[in-house]
Design brief:
- The chain is mainly alpha-helical.
- It has helices at residues 24-47, 54-63, 66-81, 85-106, 109-120, 129-145, 151-181, 197-209, 222-231, 235-246, 258-274, 280-285, 293-324, 336-348, 352-355, 361-376, 461-478, 498-508, 511-517, 529-537, 543-560, 571-582, 598-601, 612-630, 636-647, 655-663, 670-675; strands at residues 184-185, 217-218, 379-383, 394-399, 405-414, 424-429, 441-448.
- The strands form two sheets. The chain has a five-stranded mixed β-sheet, sandwiched between helices.
- Strand 4 and strand 5 form a beta hairpin.
- Bound molecules: zinc ion.
- Zinc ion (ZN) is lined by residues 469, 473, 498, 501.
- Residues 469, 473, 498, 501 line the site of zinc ion.
Length: 681
């Protein structure tokens, strides 16, 4: 039998996983072997006779399970960005096994006693602040997993974790299936009416990828369906496509997520009760900046009220626009983007199709890199022929100001059927300094529609913003400068983690950046000043809609996890009742309806945590003000403070302290409301 490439030493450049040699079947053995190895290492730490020390317990845990971590990171990056049926099957089998592995560690009484004894003596151990923080993370992690409970309850906690892991995996696989199975083939001229060139080209490319050469296909990927809804003059097709998009996860049949949601909520509520919390939301929020459901609701309500008022004004304008065109129907959800585009054209003389030729993917990548160079001194060098996992993936070496190696950045930009929807940052390897240390390998995954072959890929302004957002997360991973893996890079409180990403978006909207990098894909001419001005003037256009479609999700995510008894829960009825209660404008739907709300149900990640974007926005809007006040968006002093306290600090400082150390004071909400154009006049 040949050696399993996942279990050998990796001799590839930068020790990337040896993708070309990995077969799905290798993962089964690799997980089995590396999990057993990790188990043995952890048991040895738990069972040692010597009394607990920081070194023989916490540091030992931080360095254990290396092989498992490499195998798991490789697997989960592939299962998100480039999956197939074999990987999906392994993922389903694996989810409960990994959950059990984790429970076996976190519910190990001997191990917990060692951690708890260190925690009791923490003040006399002579720990530096970073050591102390890591000990605190361990203690909380064990506590929150139920390590302090009685035996029966611990057994039930383990069972709950495994069941929840299985449910989360099925949830995302169902959404992916509903997405990849749908395609709207535009057969006739009438089907394609109103669509700009870039969308026709992208639809041809999507058709080719699906084996429909010569045809045009709209998919449920955001960068395909949204422009279709924006431009298609064929109202019947807009309705059809919108309904398919909106129905992901509730189509009946074997991809329907409604039962999964009910079961998930029940098990989460039970877990929270076992741990002594009133609700799953209270449990989740206990370990965040927000702390309590009340604090979250308070922030969201401050934003919701002016946002609904604004959205209702916007809806009024859309109706007027439709009537002025002789179209006397009501504005429905599949009409909003279409008429909104027309109103934007009328009010700001700005249309997406005019903008798009200036927003080339390659140039926006360059802009994101250049911004990082000017702020933090790091530079980027593209490496060709790297052994990556898909030919579309690009690799860049990240260099320190002195030219030494900092890390590796992978950019995986295009939509394809094997990729989960959305956009995200992830790590193949995290930075740390233990045992000689490791440099990070960070990936950004997006779902842009690829330009026709040989042509530049053109982005919408939203796409460009997404790229900056994910690159902000990427920098949080790449610039990390900590000792311990536990607190590396983005391993921070959920409602703090969107600060580096959302803050980074601000640079994209600056004339200083756009005037250099927004250049026409054919002529190379920079975006005309007049167009740039119009773009910036229209920045808050449709903000009522955008704020409402997001905030509705955040509010419902919170309410879902405050339910006392979800045993007869019906996601669709709940959604309708809650939206009625909060006064959701009729023609707006949630950005992510509950049956396909992956942030919340694909795993625990953002459950009771979707508000985090808004929480972080209070900080990012306020934080960018520091550069504005300094009179220079690349002010070096401010950038240095930002690097030291936020982008390189990982989870070492408390988030509140990190912010104050950067800004000199706590954040204020005013900048957020002003930034969205929602401040009281
Ligand atoms: Zn983000």
């Amino acid at each position: 039998m040949t050696a399993n490439p996942l279990l050998t030493d990796w001799t590839t450049p930068f020790e990337l996983p040896p993708f070309s040699e990995i077969e799905p079947s290798h993962f089964e053995e690799a997980f089995e072997v590396s999990m057993a190895e990790a188990r043995a290492e952890i048991d040895a730490i738990a069972d040692q006779a010597a009394p607990a020390t920081f070194e023989n317990t916490v540091v030992a845990l931080e360095t254990s399970g290396k092989a498992l971590s490499k195998v798991a990171r490789t697997f989960f990056n592939l299962s998100g960005a480039h999956t197939n049926e074999a990987l999906q099957k392994i993922e389903r089998d694996l989810a409960p096994k990994l959950a059990k592995h984790s429970s076996d560690t976190l519910l190990n009484a001997k191990l917990y006693n060692r951690i708890a004894s260190l925690w009791d003596e923490k003040d006399s151990l002579g720990l530096n602040p970073e050591d102390a923080k890591v000990l605190e993370r361990y203690y909380k992690m064990f506590q929150r997993a139920g390590a302090g409970l009685e035996a029966d309850d611990k057994a039930r906690m383990a069972e709950l974790s495994q069941k929840l892991a299985t449910l989360g995996t099925s949830f995302s696989q169902n959404v992916l299936k509903d997405e990849s199975e749908y395609q709207l083939v535009l057969e006739t001229e009438e089907d394609r009416a109103g669509l700009p060139d870039f969308l026709i080209a992208a639809a041809a490319e999507a058709a080719k990828e699906r084996g429909l050469d010569g045809k045009h296909v709209i998919t449920l990927s955001r960068s395909s369906i949204e422009p279709f809804l924006q431009f298609s003059t064929n109202r019947r097709l807009r309705e059809e496509a919108f309904k398919a998009w909106s129905a992901r996860g509730e189509k009946g049949g074997d991809t329907d997520n409604r039962a999964i949601i009910k079961d998930t909520l029940e098990l989460r509520a039970e877990r929270a009760r076992l741990l002594g919390f009133d609700s799953f939301a209270a449990f989740k929020l206990d370990d965040t900046m927000a702390k309590t459901p009340e604090n979250v609701r308070d922030l969201l309500t401050k934003v919701w009220t002016p946002a609904v008022a604004r959205a209702n004004e916007e809806a009024e304008k859309l109706s007027e626009m439709a009537q002025s065109l002789g179209e006397n129907h009501e504005i429905e959800a599949w009409d909003w983007r279409f008429y909104s585009e027309k109103v934007r054209k009328a009010e700001h003389d700005l249309d997406e199709a005019e903008l798009k030729p200036y927003l080339q993917l390659d140039k926006i990548i360059e802009a994101a890199f250049d911004t990082a160079t000017r702020l933090f001194g790091v530079t980027f060098r593209e490496l060709k022929d790297m052994p990556v996992y898909h030919p579309d993936v690009r690799a860049f070496e990240v260099l320190n100001p002195d030219g030494s190696h900092k890390g590796l950045f992978l950019g995986d930009y295009f939509a394809r059927p094997s990729k989960r929807s959305g956009a995200w940052m992830s790590a193949f390897r995290s930075q740390h300094k233990l045992n000689g240390g490791e440099t990070p390998i960070i990936v950004n995954v997006m779902n842009f529609s690829k330009g026709a072959s040989g042509e530049a890929t053109l982005l919408t302004f939203d796409d460009a913003r997404t790229l900056f957002h994910e690159f902000g997360h990427g920098l949080h991973g790449l610039l990390s400068n900590v000792t311990y893996p536990m607190i590396s890079g983005t391993s921070v409180a959920r409602d703090f983690v969107e600060l580096p990403s959302q803050l980074y978006e601000h640079w994209l909207s600056e004339p200083e950046v756009l005037s250099r990098f927004a250049v026409h894909y054919k002529t190379g001419e920079p975006m005309p000043k007049a167009l740039l001005d119009k773009l910036l003037a229209a920045a808050n256009f449709n903000q009522g809609f955008a704020t409402v479609e997001y905030t509705a999700c955040a509010l419902l995510d919170l309410e879902l996890h405050l339910l006392d008894d979800p045993s007869s829960f019906d996601p669709v009825a709940f959604e309708k009742a809650e939206l009625d209660k909060i006064g959701m404008p009729k023609a707006i739907t949630m950005r992510h309806r509950i049956p396909h709300f992956q942030h919340v149900f694909s795993g625990d990640g953002y459950s009771s945590g979707y508000y985090s974007y808004m929480w972080s926005e209070v900080m990012d809007a306020d934080a960018f003000g520091a550069f504005k006040e300094a009179g220079d968006i690349f002010d070096q002093d401010t950038a240095d403070k930002l690097l030291t306290n936020i982008y390189s600090a990982g989870g070492r400082p408390d988030p509140e302290d990190a912010y104050v150390a950067f800004r000199g004071r706590a954040p204020k909400i005013d900048a957020l409301l002003e930034g969205r154009g929602l401040a009281a006049a």
